[in-house]
Design brief:
alpha/beta, Carbamate kinase, 8-stranded mixed β-sheet, 42% helix
Length: 285
């Protein structure tokens, strides 16, 4: 009985949040363990289906680094990394497009469909969505986003579809670019003026002490970020992730969350409860 009561309480608590997000755009960046583990993948897609059912306009942006590495290995192509980022030569860029825009993207669309969601799989090349230039010559065909064309995304949302977008970009010379999924999600959320952006990751959120998940920082104002970097709270791989949060906020997104994709229903707990789960970034002081 306690379990049923808890479920009812959660639904009652969620009601004002559902109302707040109805007909608003929510962008989710999906990756990490939530993507690798089949049970977690099913759980995450079911949560997104629920959000669509209650009238929230969901946009899913995904990467697929482990799948790319596995495919390259099977093809006898060595994976190389420069400062933690995948070096992408022309051959690797083709594999990235094949794996992300093909295998991974269509698997997610198929799973959403089996759960009852209306979804549409696209990549950043479709509809001239993600126009890029080279991020750094040392990284090869890794893209820095110059412009986001949201026409195709709005067309899908207005027709009742959940766009599933793989983080592949292009330039006007016909080159294909591997784009970091956090960066793509941030740029897309800003261009859409989304209500919120959720970055799913493999840690609880931003920790004041990286060795203690109990030191989670629940709320960060954009103006706090420089001092948190200076104090070493934001360091290493968290710096580019937090920069994506900052860019999204400055481009018009109201709230950005870094949340733990290893926890079942983390998206619902983040959006539809008083307590939240990870770290929320907001504008202001």
């Amino acid at each position: 009985m306690i379990g049923k009561e808890a479920q009812a309480e959660f639904l009652l608590e969620a009601m004002p949040y559902i109302e707040k997000y109805q007909n608003k755009i929510l962008v989710i960046k999906y990756g990490g363990n939530a993507m690798i583990d089949d049970e977690m993948k099913h759980s995450t897609m079911r949560d997104l289906t629920l959000l669509q059912f209650v009238g929230i306009k969901v946009v899913l942006v995904h990467g697929g680094g482990p799948e790319i590495s596995s495919t390259l290995k099977r093809m006898g192509i060595e994976s190389r990394f420069v400062n933690g980022l995948r070096y992408t030569d022309e051959e690797t860029a083709e594999v990235v497009r094949m794996v992300l825009a093909g295998k991974v993207n269509k698997e997610l669309v198929h799973l959403l469909g089996t759960l009852g969601a209306k979804s549409m799989g696209v990549c950043g090349i479709d509809g001239n969505m993600l126009l890029c230039e080279q991020e750094d010559e040392a990284l090869g065909f890794v893209g820095k986003i110059d412009r986001v064309n949201t026409e195709l995304i709005h067309t899908a949302l207005n027709a009742g579809y959940l766009p599933v977008i793989s983080s592949v970009g292009y330039d006007e010379s016909g080159n294909i670019y591997n784009v970091n999924a956090d960066t793509a999600a941030s740029a897309i959320a800003g261009a859409l003026q989304a209500e919120s952006l959720i970055l799913m990751t493999d840690i609880r959120g931003l920790l004041r002490d990286r060795d203690s998940e109990e030191s989670l920082i629940k709320k960060v104002y954009v103006s706090d970020i420089p001092s948190l970097v200076k104090d070493g709270v934001i360091s290493g791989g968290m710096i580019p992730k937090v920069n994506c949060c900052k860019d999204a906020i400055r481009n018009g997104v109201n709230r950005v969350f870094i949340t733990d994709g290893r926890v079942k229903h983390s998206i619902l707990l983040e959006l539809l409860s008083d307590e939240g789960l990870g770290t929320m970034f907001v504008k202001g002081d």
